[in-house]
Design goal:
The protein has about 70 residues and is mostly helical. Helices cover about 55% and strands about 10% of the residues. The two termini are about 15 Å apart. It has helices at about 10-15, 20-25, 30-40, 45-55, 60-65; strands at about 5, 65. The protein has a two-stranded antiparallel sheet with strand order 1-2. The protein has one domain: lambda repressor-like DNA-binding domains (434 Repressor (Amino-terminal Domain)), CATH 1.10.260. The protein is built from 5 helices and 2 strands; from the N terminus they run E-H-H-H-H-H-E. It is globular, with a radius of gyration of 11 Å.
């Protein structure tokens, strides 16, 4: 099941040549959590979302987008 929050984590991480583990370590989550976020299977807390964006050097809006169900 996908969430209403979409993200560009994988794309942004690849541009920076950052591994999932490196991002996980910077954010303070497990690699499995990063995988779940990248696959849109997990919506992070607001605090974690900010940490991800900061680790990737982008704004929250550049990393995450909210799309209400039925509006895709």
């Amino acid at each position: 099941m996908t969430t209403a929050i979409q993200n560009r984590i994988r794309e942004l991480r690849a541009v920076r040549e950052m591994t999932q583990q490196q991002l996980a370590d910077q954010v303070g989550v497990t690699r499995q959590t990063v995988i779940a976020m990248e696959q849109d299977k997990y919506s992070p807390s607001l605090e974690t979302a900010f940490k991800v964006a900061m680790a990737l050097g982008v704004t929250l809006e550049q990393c995450f987008q909210y799309q209400p169900r039925g509006k895709r």
